[in-house]
Amino acid sequence: MKKSDFHFDLPEDLIAQAPLPERSASRLLVVPPGDAPFVDRHVRDLPEWLQAGDLLVFNDTRVIPARIFGQKESGGRVEILIERLLPDNCARAQVGASKSPKAGSRIALDPGGEAEVLGRDGEFYQLRFHVGDALESWLLRAGRLPLPPYIHREPGADDDERYQTVFARELGAVAAPTAGLHFDDALLASLRAKGIEFGHVTLHVGAGTFQPVRVDDVREHRMHSEWLNVGAALVEQVRATRACGGRVIAVGTTVVRALESAMRRNEAGEGELQPFAGETRIFIFPGYRIRSVDAMLTNFHLPESTLLMLVSAFTGKSRIFAAYEHAVREKYRFFSYGDAMLLFPESAE
């Protein structure tokens, strides 16, 4: 299976550069199971496609203001994108500079203070921040929101609110779980009124989510590591939902990755969701059978990306690519601030 198998042509003007004024006004492409026709709706219509007793699972991670600018001792400008907070005011980060900073050097930060370069592991640096406060607190005051690289503008005041989900609470991501951006209070109320339950996992989306697949054979790709927590309460919600005949619907690929990472074999050799907190490098591509969810709400993903491979594994590659062709033809908006799809599995088995 080659990376090029997941290529498609996307007109530049379909990449959403800003959110719509209303979260749930985004369009929704429903991709029913089998060969049923695609349905063009809006996210606010989601309750029509769900049933009382279904469980929507959200990712409650919150985006860190993780982008900082500074200057090397030589005078060269530096851009720092924090990937993960570490103990002792340290962080794992990407550093953009004309020449790579060396271990032991210091970066003067524009908001004040310094970042000391401790070392490098591949594309990531380990930095210690000397900022006179706990790094997390300092970033909330001094950091800038890290919009994705395909959004070609500087973040504005509106992004501070719109690039967070309304249920974001666990600080630690450097990118939003974008399927969740479509939910507002009115839509959540409408879903509750229909008898649909809500559950939460946490997966802190890392900067690696934007890294391209660099190998031609996708089986050789090594996923970046992300931290997640699937709690006991969510596991019990899933079990209760299944016992009553309800469906589990993931809001976003990050929820799928979290739930699949928490699947364990029981005594009968079957997959069973168990509480789990820790790192995951799970890579889901066609040939992998997703067992943890019955449907998925997700945005439209980049060509040749691991996320496009994941949805192809769930719904079937030919079906996904037919849906993407429909979306391009109908001028859906793509990527983080774009429109959404409601996907069902390739097989109802």
UniProtKB/TrEMBL annotation:
It comes from the Bacteria. Keywords: Cytoplasm, Glycosyltransferase, Queuosine biosynthesis, S-adenosyl-L-methionine, Transferase. It is found in: Cytoplasm. Pathway: tRNA modification; tRNA-queuosine biosynthesis. It catalyses: 7-aminomethyl-7-carbaguanosine(34) in tRNA + S-adenosyl-L-methionine = epoxyqueuosine(34) in tRNA + adenine + L-methionine + 2 H(+). Its EC number is 2.4.99.17. Signal peptide: none annotated. The keyword S-adenosyl-L-methionine applies. Pfam families: Queuosine_synth (PF02547). GO terms for molecular function: S-adenosylmethionine:tRNA ribosyltransferase-isomerase activity. InterPro entries: QueA (IPR003699), QueA_dom1 (IPR042118), QueA_dom2 (IPR042119), QueA_sf (IPR036100). Gene3D superfamilies: QueA-like. Monomer. NCBIfam families: PRK00147.1, queA. Belongs to the QueA family. Transfers and isomerizes the ribose moiety from AdoMet to the 7-aminomethyl group of 7-deazaguanine (preQ1-tRNA) to give epoxyqueuosine (oQ-tRNA). This is S-adenosylmethionine:tRNA ribosyltransferase-isomerase. The gene is queA.
